[in-house]
Design brief:
By secondary structure, this protein is an alpha/beta fold. It is about 25% helix and about 20% strand. It has a six-stranded mixed beta sheet with strand order 7-6-5-8-10-9, with helices on both faces. A two-stranded antiparallel sheet has the order 1-2. Helix 1 crosses helix 7. It is globular.
Length: about 270
């Protein structure tokens, strides 16, 4: 069973419940279970379900402390796209130095994603974000310390989630939120706050399908080979679009990195 699962259960006399049936999942977000230290490279990496029955995946990053990480964002976008969950991008901590963020905001909104700039300290941008979250099941994901729990507390003050510090030496978070929990904010709105992630390898995606989860690679269909992985194949329309500047190089690099993790996985 996963966070967000809907179940049928019998209520026992002592107030506990016994689950009879887990309802079919509308969708779910998963990743490959993180590598276990010392397990070597051969250990099978199973699917780890993060949450089920989600409307929005809210991908939170910060412009500083910790440093903005577009590679992680692109991985989380692939997780959302391949699970048919609506992704929403949030760039938090814009009260800190946010120069350089304009490029990323243009890039992602140019592809068609909703991008919100927020500051929980200055209370900027959260009203607009709340409008997208109300009435939905929202999964919040991102690195430790970017301000996921702080954002949720500001948007839904009844939550009173624990907020942590940023390490002075590394500018990273200290993994304050330790388990994923679903919290109902009102009858129709729920949020799932999650612990900060260090790594995410998407589970169950085939090389020739990866391009479908990069929205702007829609020239997919125009490649000479219909199983084109947009890597070295002749007549690749995606590579041509990168060369012409129609597809941003940064996104293509993220794509190649992901393609590599799929190719390296012998168990898949
Ligand atoms: N400058 C600034 N600091 C912020 C902002 N939002 C949150 N913080 C700070 O960032 C630190 C981490 O915030 P959290 O909300 O605990 O971050 P988190 O993403 O939930 O972290 P984990 O639970 O470890 O995954 C705290 O010290 C917050 O006060 C912001 O908009 N600006
Ligand atoms: Mg947290
Ligand atoms: Zn191609």
């Amino acid at each position: 069973m996963a966070v967000g699962d809907r179940v049928d259960f019998d209520l026992n006399k002592d107030g506990t419940g016994t689950i009879q049936k887990i309802d079919e999942r509308r969708n779910y977000i998963s990743r490959k279970a993180p590598k276990i230290k010392g397990a070597g490279t051969r250990g099978e990496r199973l699917e780890q379900i993060i949450a089920a029955n989600i409307d929005n995946l809210i991908i939170v990053s910060s412009c500083q402390q910790p440093k903005f990480n577009n590679r992680l964002i692109d991985r989380l976008l692939v997780a959302a796209e391949s699970s048919r969950v609506n992704p929403i991008l949030v760039i938090n901590k814009i009260d800190l130095d946010s120069s350089g963020m304009g490029y990323w905001i243009d890039l992602y909104s140019g592809i068609g994603y909703d991008v919100f700039k927020t500051s929980t300290i200055k209370k900027i941008g959260t009203d607009e974000l709340k409008k997208k979250m109300d009435g939905k099941v929202n999964l919040i994901w991102g690195q430790s310390g970017v301000g996921k729990s702080s954002l949720l507390n500001l948007i839904y003050p009844s939550l009173k989630l624990k907020v942590g510090e940023i390490s002075q030496s590394t500018s990273k978070g200290k993994h304050t939120t330790v388990t994923s929990i679903l919290l109902d904010v009102d009858e129709n709105t729920s949020v799932i706050d999650t612990p900060g992630i260090r790594e995410i390898d998407p589970y169950g995606i085939r090389k020739e399908d990866l391009g479908h989860y990069f929205r702007e690679f829609s020239s997919d269909g125009q490649c000479r080979f219909n199983t084109c992985t947009h890597y070295h194949e002749p007549g690749c329309a995606v590579i041509q679009a990168v060369e012409e500047g129609v597809i941003e190089k940064e996104r293509y690099v993220s794509y190649l990195n992901l393609l590599d993790t799929i190719e390296d996985d012998m168990n898949f």
